[in-house]
Amino acid sequence: MEWKPGIASFLVPFVLLTVLGMRFYRPSDSLVSWILTVVWSLPVIGTLVGIQGALLIRRRARRAHEMVPPAPAEADFLIALVPTIGRHDTYPALERSVLSYVDHLPAFFPYMRVDVLTEEGCEAAEKIAELGRHPLVRVVTVPKAYATPGGTRFKARANHYSHELRIAEGEALEHVWVLHMDDDTGVGADTAASLAQFINRQRRAHPDEAKHMAQGILTYPRENAVSLFTWLADAVRPADDIARFRALTGTGTPAAGVHGELLVLRASIEATIGWDFGPKAIVEDAQLALTFCQRYPGRSDWFNGRCYGASPATTKDFVKQRERWAWGLVALCVNRTIPLRYRWFLAVCVATWVLGPLQHIGVVLTVCWLLGDMNTSPVLQGVILLWSLNFAYVIWTYWEGLRLNALVSRSGRRKWWEPVVVLALIPVFSVLEGLGGLRGFFKYARREENQFVVIAKPA
User: Fold this and answer.
1) Are 112 and 77 within 8 A, CB to CB?
2) Of 40, 59, 206, 266, whose CB neighbour count within 10 A is largest?
C-alpha cells in the first residue's frame, strides 16, 4: 500500500497563517504578549523534529525501488508478546489481535510463537486458555506471588516476568526478536512483510551497524472504532509515529520514547535492560526507550509497517488514557537516574502538553477579554513565523493522521466530510488532550498512588 506524508497539508496553512499574522500584527509588550511569546513558541522544538521525520519518510519513499523486497526471515525466531489484564471486556479485542498474528505472521516468519501474557486468576482465564490450544500460541501466566527485585508493578512487572522466562529457557539470543504488542492491536500481511524486511536487513548489516530495536506505525481502522468522535480525535497518534518517532527512533536514539505496539527488540538486548523500573513506573515503554538511548546509542530504527488498533470507546476513556500517559511521563522527565541529555526533549514535549489548557486559544481570548486588551500579538513580529509553524504542524498531524487511518480502513479513503470535521474539532480535541495531560500532572504533583488504568478495549 503506497503512501507518504503530504506537503500541501502543512504548507497551505503555514502560508495562510503567516500572511494573516503579519497582516494583523500590532506591537505589544503586555504581560499576556510576553507569556504567549514563550508558551506558543515552545512547541517549535517538537515541530521541527516532526517535520524532519516526515521528510525522511518522503526521501525513503523515493528510494523504495533500491530496497531488497520482503522475504521470509528464515534465520530468525519471532516471539509476539501480548500482555493482557484478562478481563471479560478486554477479551474480544485480545482474541481479534491474537488471531491476526497466527493468520499473517507465519507467512514471513516460519519460526515464531505468540506468547499471551496474563495474570493468575484473571477473569477471562478459561477463554484465554482456549486461545492457547492453537499450536503457535502459548499462554504464560504470571503468578500472583511473583515480585521483581525492584518492586515493579502493573504491565512492566508482567513484561519482566516474561523477560526472565526467556532467559531461563535459553531464548535471550541475538537471532530471537520480541515483538511487543497490545491486546487490542492486530497485524496484517503488510505488517509481517515490513517486519521481516527490517529483520533481514539487520542480518545483512555489519555487526557494528545492525539495529537492535525498531518501531512501526500504530493506525486505527474505522471498523475497529466504537466512537466516531474518539476515532477522529486519535488521528493525531499515527501522525506522531510518522513524525517524531520516525525522526528520533528512526535515526538511532528514541529520545521521544516508544509505544508498546509494534515495538520489536532483540531478546539478547532486552535481557540486558529488563523491565524492572520500580513501583512508580506506569510508562514502561518510554522508560525502556530512554534506557536504550543510554546503553545502545544509534542502534534503533523505524520501519514502514503498520499495526491496527482501536481508539478508546468513550471520551471519558480517552481522557483517562491521556491522564495515565502524562502522569507517568512527568515522573520520567524528572527521573534523575536518566541523564538529562536523554530526557530533555521528552520533558519539553510533556511541558507543552501539560500547559495545553492554559494556552488554549479559547482560554487566552477569555483572559484578554477580562483584562480589556484583545491584542494577542507576540512581542516581536518575527515570532509569528514560529507560531505559524506550530499551528500549521498541528493541522498537518490531524490531516495526515486521518488520511492514514482512513487508508487502512476497509474503504481505503476518507469520507468527504471527515477532513472538514476533524479540522473544525481540533480546538475540542486539544482541550481533551490538554485536560488529560493536566490531570496527569496534578496526580503526580499530589504524589497520588500510581495506578495503571486499563480502559475497555473495543472488539
Assistant:
1) yes
2) 266
| Residue 399, pLDDT score | 97
State the cell numbers at 169. Answer: 529457557
Instruction: State the pLDDT at residue 380.
Output: 94
Residue-wise pLDDT for 327-360, tens only, equals 999 999 999 999 999 999 999 999 999 988 888 8
| Cell 495503571 -> residue | 452
**Which residues on adjacent β-strands are paired with residue 179?**
80, 264
Which whole-number Å values give the CA distances from 287 to 290, 292, 303, 321, in the listed order? 5, 8, 21, 18
Classify residue 305 by its DSSP letter.
E
pLDDT the model gives residue 3? 77
pTM metric for this prediction? 0.95
Examine the pLDDT at 458 and tell me if it is beyond 90: no
Angle at Cα 114 formed by Cα 113 and Cα 117, nearest 5°?
135
Determine the Cα–Cα distance for residues 349 and 347; give it in Å rounded to an integer: 5
Report the amino acid identity of residue 427: P
Comparing C-alpha atoms, which of 73, 63, 458 is closest to residue 264? 73
Which H helix or E strand runs over 33?
helix 31-39
> What pLDDT band is residue 456 in, cutting at 50, 70 and 90?
low
Please report, for residues 84, 87, 272, the alpha-carbon distance to residue 142 in angstroms, rounded to integers and kept in the order given: 11, 15, 21
Strands 263-266 and 176-180, by their bridges, are antiparallel
If we measure between CA atoms, which residue out of 327, 378, 329, 323 comes closest to residue 349? 329
Name the nearest CA neighbour of 159 among 307, 322, 275: 275
Phi, then psi, of 294 in degrees rounded to 5 = -65, -45
One-letter identity of residue 85: I
% pLDDT > 90, the chain: 86
Burial label for 251, CB within 10 Å (0-12, 13-18, 19+), is: middle
Q: Is the dihedral of CA 444, 446, 447, 448 positive or negative?
A: negative
Sign of CA dihedral 201, 180, 64, 57: negative
